[in-house]
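Bug #77: duplicate submission created two jobs. Keeping one. Sequence:
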Amino acid sequence: MDVVTKIRYVDASYVTTPELSPSFVPAVYEVYGYVQHLTRSIMVRYVIQIPPGNSSESVIEGLVLPAHAVQSQHLRADIRPYMTIAPNTRITVDWYDVVHLTHASVRECHTMRTEGFFERVIGQYLLIRAPKTVRIEPEPMKIHAKDATYLSIPISCIHTHQL
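Kept job's structure:
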């Protein structure tokens, strides 16, 4: 029997203003729904549909969260590799993003690639200035948040980085 579960999770945050507020803190979100564990993600279904005569469900609305975006995992992320990077260093980061699904089948979270300039670490987040982000998986590649001036990425969702 499915049980509605509360999940606290983190997500990347985009800023579109020219200057970043000194009090900027990325948010922690909550979602309530039916949880399904996938290979590298967690599906939280909050509206489902079971077609007549079919035993399989289709998702009407839900979120696909990278497994490490769940707050308990996020708080354990190792920030040490990022503490020695100098500000304004060019950086490329591949990371897993939260996906909002509507009228879609269950799938893994998206893989994103962001290139920009390392700004600093804020708590458990990497702050990147002048980010250029594309979805690299699933294909086709798609540009993401064109107008962003800053991007904070949860360190727990990063799977590779290059300087």
